[in-house]
Design goal:
CATH topology of the domain at 552-733: Immunoglobulin-like
Strand content: 15-25%
Helix content: 25-40%
Radius of gyration: 29 Å
């Protein structure tokens, strides 16, 4: 008999901003309506099939909050708003975001949803969206509000709920009452998910395992230098991260939370992204886990071998792969199962376009043949581990993957050669021992995805510096318990793997910018909670490729304006670079103000000086007299800031240098000048920048109120950039 341990991994990152309490993206809520509920509910039809579900705490805690109506996201709020009360911004948001679903199976299969997508057309830019909005009636918008959610309802639930069937039969022309009915369905589903898993676990049909709470890469938390074992020549973060206590905390929190939800501590662990190392074993064992799992390539590297496959996909050493192992290191031992990468990928990436019955038959046939080969070589009962994502693949299958899963479970239940087992059963008595384990993840047996890119390394440095700032604040003894707890929670969230997954050029989505901003937002929150200045770097995107460029005009000639605070001549700023502040989107601390204080930034230089001009919605001298301050903060050269404020009724400029940490600034020498009238003009000698010639200068401008709080920052995601002129600058930019 071949034992098959099938594990479905359910995971989402933590989307909530702990300050605003808004969930930035809706995927926990939407996947709960379909995959989190349906994947376990359908097992009632197959009582002899035993499965393991890995439920990540960062997903579950958000699911609980939505089920209890403590959580909200903009998608939910705008979706419930009466269609005739939607603002222009609401409509733009709906058209930009309410078609984020698999097009063929989730949109085009619903005629009205497809019709609405056609009405939107290919609009992506702000102006195109505005044009498309004029084609939508109030009834169209209401139908889109309904279909954006209705398309995510689990296929099993669709068949069994009269309210949902009525909405599907109606198809279009929905009412506001229909939206409220769908909200009731949504809440019912959200509230059934966790009880459904608990019921199946109590019945003994499933095992529920867990992952570290916020899904961090545990080996990198223990020591980022572990990456050098596979990439010894790689550049590394400017600040090494070594926090095994944080790794232990993420594990313990996961176990405690799991026990609260399901009545007992978990015995099994899927380390985030299958990431393992010798350093994590004592932490895993101490947290009470008896088994963990990772990928076959980790086993191959540990055994100093390779697993090759023949033309039919069968592995050449099945007796070595299809068995649980006991892994020992640093005085700890944990059982470990190694997933068959090829079989797992058959489900995740190959079967979506196959007929359901044929795909299920093919998969079970592969399992049976793999088991026969393993028995013929070892004479022992093989255990095949199949581990994969349990939510994202099904959008690409017909019927949400339910026809395939039903066919698969039916064949597994009736195969005379296969016994399905939970992971705990599969790993209960490992007969083989590994003295240590190769450090890596399920992707290429290394950690390149999470630390191999410059964007990743910048993020790890930012995380390490925020973590050190928390330690320093704690060491003063003046940090109250509540503030420390909140700041530490922000750190633990920022340690999650997902932020680093989207950095670099190997993965991308429509929401890269949101992931990047949320990571930096969590770190900014740490500094604010600790009442420390936020490093300027955390206001600038970490994404180095793929984002649209800043809408700035570059300098095209050297300039030499008169610094008098007035636009005294058309020619003095002619040829300067220019940035227009178009709206307040993304600016800091916006509450009741709809318009920006600053309206335009000009910048340019000659061979010896940098010039910056700031225009505002009111005379800049009056702004300064009311106590506002303005800064020009440099990211290159790093650690310099020009501060402009009013002293004795006149604009005064001072140059500040960062010394040591992000919160330590000292006033330096400033030989330039500033002047405020209807505009603000500044000249900064290059000698004051203490760096000699620069190939490029990058900076942002900020506005602070009389209390010193930053209220605007422009641009909001990426700095302004300018090339510093050399002798050939004008020649390169000259046009006849």
């Amino acid at each position: 008999m071949t034992r098959v341990a099938l594990l479905w991994h359910m995971h989402q990152p933590y989307y909530e901003d702990l300050v605003t309490r808004e969930h930035i993206l809706p995927w926990v809520r939407l996947h709960a309506l379909k995959d989190y509920y349906g994947m376990v509910a359908m097992l009632e039809e197959f009582p002899t099939v035993r499965i393991t579900f890995n439920l990540v705490p960062s997903m579950l805690v958000q699911l609980e909050a939505f089920a209890e109506e403590r959580a909200h996201d903009r998608y939910l709020d705008v979706g419930l708003r009466p269609a005739d009360a939607l603002s222009h911004d609401d409509v733009a948001f709906i058209l930009q975001n309410f078609f984020h679903a698999q097009r063929h199976h989730m949109i085009e299969s619903r005629p009205r949803y497809a019709e609405l997508l056609g009405l939107k057309g290919h609009a992506r830019s702000r102006s195109d969206i505005a044009s498309a909005a004029r084609r939508f009636t109030t009834d169209d918008l209401r139908d889109l509000q309904v279909w954006q959610k209705l398309a995510w309802i689990d296929p099993i639930y669709l068949d069994g709920d009269a309210r949902v069937r009525a909405l599907l039969e109606k198809g279009r022309g929905f009412s506001e009452d229909d939206k409220l009915t769908l909200r009731d369905v949504e809440l019912d589903l959200l509230r059934q998910v966790i009880p459904a898993y608990r019921a199946r676990a109590e019945a003994g049909q499933i095992e529920i395992s867990t992952s570290p709470f916020y899904h961090p890469i545990l080996p990198l938390l223990c020591d980022t230098d572990v990456y050098l074992q596979t990439h010894p020549a790689s550049p590394m973060p400017r600040h090494r991260f070594v926090r095994p206590a944080d790794a232990a905390d993420q594990l313990e929190r996961a176990a405690v939370y799991h026990e609260r939800l399901f009545g007992q501590r978990p015995t099994g662990l899927w380390p985030s992204e299958g990431s393992v190392s010798d350093a994590i074993l004592p932490l895993v064992q101490k947290a009470g886990f008896s088994w963990m799992a990772t990928d076959e390539l980790i086993l191959a590297r540990t055994l100093h071998t390779t697993f090759a496959r023949d033309a039919s996909g069968q592995v050449d050493q099945p007796e070595r792969l299809y068995a649980p192992y006991r892994v020992t290191a640093h005085g700890a031992d944990v059982a470990c199962g190694f997933r068959d990468h090829a079989l797992s990928d058959q489900i995740g990436f190959q079967y979506s376009n196959w007929p359901a019955d044929r795909a299920a038959e093919d998969f079970v046939t592969r399992l049976e043949e793999a088991g026969r080969r393993a028995r013929s070589r070892s004479g022992e009962e093989p255990t095949i581990f199949v581990i994969l994502d349990g939510e994202n693949a099904w959008e690409h299958f017909e019927g949400g993957g339910r026809p395939f899963l039903k066919a698969l479970y039916g064949r597994l239940a009736h195969s005379p050669e296969i016994e399905t087992v939970t992971m705990a059963e599969a790993c209960r008595a490992p007969g083989r021992t590994l003295d240590g384990i190769f450090p890596g993840s399920w992707i290429d047996a290394n950690f390149y995805i999470w630390i191999g890119h410059a964007d990743d390394r910048r993020g790890w440095s930012q995380l390490a510096e925020a973590r050190d700032t928390l330690d320093a604040a704690e060491a003063t003894g003046a940090l109250d318990v509540a503030t420390h707890a909140r700041a530490r929670e922000e750190i633990l969230i920022a340690e999650g793997s997902d932020w680093f997954w989207w950095y670099g050029d190997d993965h991308s989505s429509d929401h890269d910018a949101e992931f990047d901003d949320l990571f930096r937002r969590h770190l900014r929150n740490v500094y604010r909670l600790l009442e420390r200045p936020v490093p300027d770097e955390l206001f600038v995107t970490n994404i180095s490729a793929g984002l649209a460029p800043i809408a700035q005009l570059d300098p095209v000639s050297q300039i030499a304006p008169v610094i008098d605070g007035e636009d005294s001549s058309y020619f003095e700023w002619l040829g300067a670079g220019e940035f227009e502040v178009r709206d307040m989107a993304g600016a800091m601390h916006q509450t009741d103000r709809e318009a920006a204080i600053l309206t335009r930034v000009y910048f340019g230089s000659d061979e010896h000086n940098l010039y910056v001009r700031l225009d505002g919605a009111e005379p800049m001298s009056e702004l300064l007299e009311r106590g506002y301050a303005l800064t020009v903060t440099f990211l290159a050269p790093e650690g310099l800031r020009l501060l402009v404020r009013s002293e004795n009724g006149r604009a005064s400029g001072s140059l500040w240098l960062r010394a040591g940490g992000p919160e330590r600034w000292s006033e330096g020498g400033f030989s330039g000048s500033v002047a405020a009238g209807s505009i603000l003009e500044c000249v900064i000698p290059v000698d004051d920048l203490h760096v000699g010639r620069l190939p490029q200068i990058t900076f942002v401008v900020t506005v602070c109120d009389a209390a010193g709080a930053e209220i605007e920052r422009h641009p909001t995601a990426r700095p302004l950039e300018m090339e510093f002129p050399d002798a050939a600058f004008d020649a390169r930019h000259w046009t006849a």
